[in-house]
Amino acid sequence: MKKLFDYLRKKGALVVSDYLVFMVLGVIVYVLVLREIL
């Protein structure tokens, strides 16, 4: 598990974390829009 984490950090963990944050924000907006429509 630690080797994988170190590997991701070397490959650019900032890109991965930014992508995850973008996904979470997208899901939240998607759910809010659905609730407004429904």
Termini separation:
42 Å
User: What's the β-strand tally?
Assistant: 0
The proportion of residues forming helix, as a percent range, comes to over 70%
Tally of individual domains: 1
Fold and architecture overview:
The protein is mostly helical. It has one domain. It is built from one helix and no strands. It has one helix at 2-37. It starts with a helix and ends with a helix. The relative contact order is 0.10. The model has no long low-confidence stretch (mean pLDDT 83). The chain crosses the membrane at residues 12-33. Keywords: Membrane, Transmembrane, Transmembrane helix.
Topology readout:
Elements: H1 2-37
Can you summarize this structure?
Keywords: Membrane, Transmembrane, Transmembrane helix. The chain crosses the membrane at residues 12-33. The protein is mostly helical.
Descriptive keywords:
38 residues, mainly alpha, 1 helix, 95% helix, 0% strand, transmembrane helix, transmembrane, membrane
